[in-house]
């Protein structure tokens, strides 16, 4: 059976398990085009990757996709040239094209405005689409796709993040912020709640250090804001925290909340983005109710168990099978 060509930018550590699971099912060759890494870390040396990798210039992707060596093409949204090239190559080679859709709103910048019409065409004419979750699926369906839409749930390494940790606890009530302390991540909003507990900002920590901080924290806060060029696609820190049984306060601008992993009053609390009063109220509610914290945390641990690398690979495989 011919392999599948998967065009994406990088194979960062948090994706390797998912890519490996898909390769074991479908025989996938990954074309890593490189480029900026905005979310979640860079790549890994090819010698460490458990699947075949090539590093083509973006301009050559169409020729590779149309070469006859592959039975289908999957492509994510990365690369100004790579995505349309992958689509064009699949069409030229008369093989199925699957779009891996990751956003739930198109960025509102002049550069992104130029890409909207070509991307809308791909949404409409892809043979199948695999998405990050229900929130992305809902957005994709507004583009009236002709092909079926499947969900490939976002996942992290459950064995690692769910393992027993050494709690890193620095205060009586510990609030964790895991990520870049930038405007789009809502850090300025969180600053107005610093007086409600011991706030730990975890940026550039090793995975082991971050796992210990999850284990030592009472709540993870993900206060992301929408901007012209950013709407949190998911937020894998939510999955990581849930594996340690830590509840999450997330805004309605976080993909993991819009996509159903963070469920208000069940696995965490969802608040309006940019609302300092709502954020303070949510933090105080969890601070003052340890029973609620425990219940949300246990529910969170149970909910995230379904978000596995195999579940992601299954969603991608179903998209391929539908073509």
Automatic annotation (TrEMBL):
InterPro entries: Glyco_trans_1 (IPR001296)
Gene Ontology molecular function: glycosyltransferase activity
Alphabetized UniProt keyword annotations: Glycosyltransferase, Transferase
Domain called Glycosyl transferase family: residue spans: 204-302
Coiled coil regions, renumbered to chain: none
One Pfam match: Glycos_transf_1
Entry superkingdom: Bacteria
PANTHER family noted in UniProt: D-INOSITOL 3-PHOSPHATE GLYCOSYLTRANSFERASE, GLYCOSYLTRANSFERASE
Protein name: Glycosyltransferase family 4 protein
Protein's organism: Solirubrobacter phytolaccae
């Amino acid at each position: 059976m011919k392999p599948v060509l998967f065009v994406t930018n990088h194979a960062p550590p948090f994706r390797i398990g998912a890519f490996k699971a898909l390769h074991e099912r479908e025989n996938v060759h990954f074309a890593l085009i490189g480029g900026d890494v905005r979310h979640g870390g860079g790549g890994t040396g090819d010698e460490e990757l458990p699947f075949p990798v090539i590093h083509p210039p973006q301009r050559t992707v169409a020729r590779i996709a149309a070469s006859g060596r592959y039975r289908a093409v999957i492509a994510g949204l990365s690369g100004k040239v790579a995505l349309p090239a992958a689509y064009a190559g699949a069409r030229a080679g008369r093989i199925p094209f699957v779009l891996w859709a990751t956003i739930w709103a198109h960025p509102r910048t002049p550069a992104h405005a130029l890409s909207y019409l070509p991307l809308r065409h791909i949404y409409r004419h892809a043979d199948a689409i695999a998405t990050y979750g229900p929130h992305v699926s809902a957005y994709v369906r507004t583009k009236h796709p002709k092909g079926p839409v499947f969900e490939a749930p976002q996942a992290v390494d459950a064995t690692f993040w769910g393992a027993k940790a050494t709690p890193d606890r620095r205060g009586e009530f510990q609030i964790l912020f895991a990520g870049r302390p930038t405007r789009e991540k809502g850090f300025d909003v969180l600053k107005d709640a610093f007086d409600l507990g011991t706030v730990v900002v975890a940026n550039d920590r090793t995975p082991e250090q971050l796992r210990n901080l999850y284990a030592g924290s009472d709540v993870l806060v993900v206060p992301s804001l929408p901007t012209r060029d950013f709407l949190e696609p998911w937020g894998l820190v939510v999955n990581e925290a849930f594996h340690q049984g830590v509840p999450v306060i997330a805004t309605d601008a976080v993909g993991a909340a819009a996509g159903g992993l963070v469920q208000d009053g069940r696995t965490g609390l969802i608040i309006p983005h940019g609302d300092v009063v709502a954020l303070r109220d949510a933090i105080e509610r969890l601070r003052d109710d340890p029973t609620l914290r425990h219940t949300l945390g246990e529910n969170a641990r149970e909910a995230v168990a379904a978000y596995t690398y195999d579940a992601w690979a299954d969603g991608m495989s179903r998209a391929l099978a539908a073509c």
